[in-house]
Amino acid sequence: MSGMTSGGSEKKNGRIGNRIVGASFAAVLAVYTAGYSRTQSAANHLAAQVAERRAAVPAPERVTIHVPQLASPAPIPSRLLPAPAPLPEPTRKVAAASSVETPPAQSATKIDAPPAFVEPVRSDIFEPGVSAAQVIAPAIAAAPAVTVPPPQQPAKPTWKDGTYTGWGYSRHGNIEAAVVIEGGRILSANISQCRTRYSCDVIDKLIPQVAQRQSPDVDYVSGATQSADAFYGAVVEALSKAQ
Amino acid sequence: MSASARTVAVMGTLVTIEVVHPSIDSDEAVDRAFGWFHEIETRCTRFHESELTQLTSQAGVPVEASPILYEAVCFALMVAEESGGAFDPTVGHRMEGQGFNREHRSGEIFRTAISPENDVSYRDVLIDPGRRTILLRRPLTLDLGAVAKGLAVDTAARELAPFRDFAIDAGGDLYLGGSNEQGVPWSVGIRDPRDPQQLIDSLRISNQAVCTSGDYERRGHILDPRTKTSSHSVASATVVAPVAMLADALATAAFVLGPDEGIRLLTRLGVDGLIVTPELKRYETRGLCRAA
Description:
Structural class of chain B: alpha+beta
Low-confidence stretches of chain A: 1-13, 41-47, 54-154
Number of strands of chain B: 15
Helix content of chain B: 25-40%
Number of domains of chain A: 1
Structural class of chain A: alpha+beta
Oligomer: heterodimer
Number of domains of chain B: 2
Largest interface: A-B, 50 and 57 residues
CATH superfamily of the largest domain in chain B: ApbE-like domains
CATH class of the largest domain in chain B: Alpha Beta
Strand order of the largest sheet of chain B: 1-2-6-7-10-13-14-15
Order of helices and strands of chain B: EEHHEHHEEHEEEEEEEEHHEE
Radius of gyration of chain B: 19 Å
C-alpha cells in the first residue's frame, strides 16, 4: 500500500490543477443551485397537479410523492391545496377528499406547501421545468393508466373571455396549451407548443375533450400518461388565468 | 441499520446509489439524486429530442441555454482547451459515422439531419458568458455524453453529501463519499482491460470520483479528435479527481493522448490517474493511492 495521498500531485501543481478542479466545482455548484431552485418550484407545481389528478383515480396503490428540499415536511391535507382551476364536476372533489383518508400515515401523499400554481419558473427558450417531473416519476410510472369517467353533466363555471395559455410539465418535456374562452365557456383548447420528447400526436384525442367537458379533466392515455398529465396541467394553468 | 442500495436504468446505463447509513431523509435524497440523472439526460442527450439537439439544429445563431446545458458546454470547452483538443465534445457526428449512433437501452438508431464538415472542432463552439448563450459557428454535433454523466454524478453527490458515507456508480463512473460500511475509505478495483474477471489494481478512495475509459466495452469508441481515428496505445485510462465530470473528461483525454502525454496532462492538472496499455504496462501519477 502506498502511503501517498491523492492530493499529492495537486500540491505540486497548484496553479493549473486548482484552477481546473476549482472551475469544475464551480460548474457543478452553478448547476446544482440554479437547477435545483428551478426543480423545486416546478416540483411543487407538478406535485400539486399530480396529487390533484391522481386523487381522482380510485387507485389501489398509494401515491407517494417526494418533493425535494421540503421546507416543512408535514403532509398537508388536500383540502388545503389551492384549487388550480374551476373543477366543475363533483366526482373529482369527492375523490380528492378521499385521498386524505386512503393513505396510511407513514407513506401518505406528501406535498410540499405549494405556491403550487404560481407562475412556473422557466426561461424564454426551451427551459421547461422538466426537473420536477423526474422527482416524482416513480409515482407516475407506478400509477395505473386508467380512464377517468367523463362527468355526467358538465357544470357551468364561467371564465373571462379571451385566449389563455399555460404550461404543463413532464419528465419527457413540456406542453403549452392555449384555451379560448367565449361567452364564459371553453370554446376550444389546443396544444400551442409541444416540447415533449415524443410527438404530441399521441394525445390528440384529448384536445377536444376539454371543450366537450368544459373541464381540464381529460382522459389518461396508456403509454402516454406523462404527456396527458402535462396537457392536463397546461390546461389547468391556462384556465387559472381566466378566472 | 445497514447500507441500502438502489439501481435505476438511466443515461443508457445502470446507476446504483448506495447510502451506508440510510434513513428516511436519505431515501428522499436518493430520489433527488436520481432526479438529477433524469434531468441532465433530458437536456443533454443526443439520442432524443433534447435541449442539446435543439441547440445543434440552430448553427449560426446564439442560443440561450439552461444552466445545465450552459455549464456542461462551458466545462467541455475548458477541458478541450486544457487538453489541446484531445478531449473534444464536437466528435459527436464522427461517432455516428462510425456506428456509435445507437441508444444503448432502446437500441434505437439515431442520426442527425445535419452533415457537418469534417474539420469541425470545439473552437467552433462559442460561449457568451454575459448573455449565457451558446453559438455554433458551423453545423456540428455536440457529444456531451461523458460530461453529462459526470455532471449527474456530481450533482447527485451534492444531494447525498449530508449523509457523508455513500457510493454512486453510474456505469463505471464512480463517486465515493466518506467511508464504506467497515468505516474505512472505499476500495475501488480497476479492471484488467484484457480479462474482465481480474483486477489490475485497487485504489483507496474517499470523497473523490473515479472514472475509467476503456477500449473493452465498445472497442474504439473513443476517437482521437485530432486524427479522427480510434486510439490504440491505451487499453484503459483511469482518473481520480474530486469532480466526476472532470475525472470522466480527463480519462477520455488521457486515453486519446497515450500513456506518456496522458500522465503529463493529469499531473499538470493536479489529478491522479492510471493508464494501462494493451500490453498491460502501467503508467501512473505519483499521487495515486492504492488500497492495501
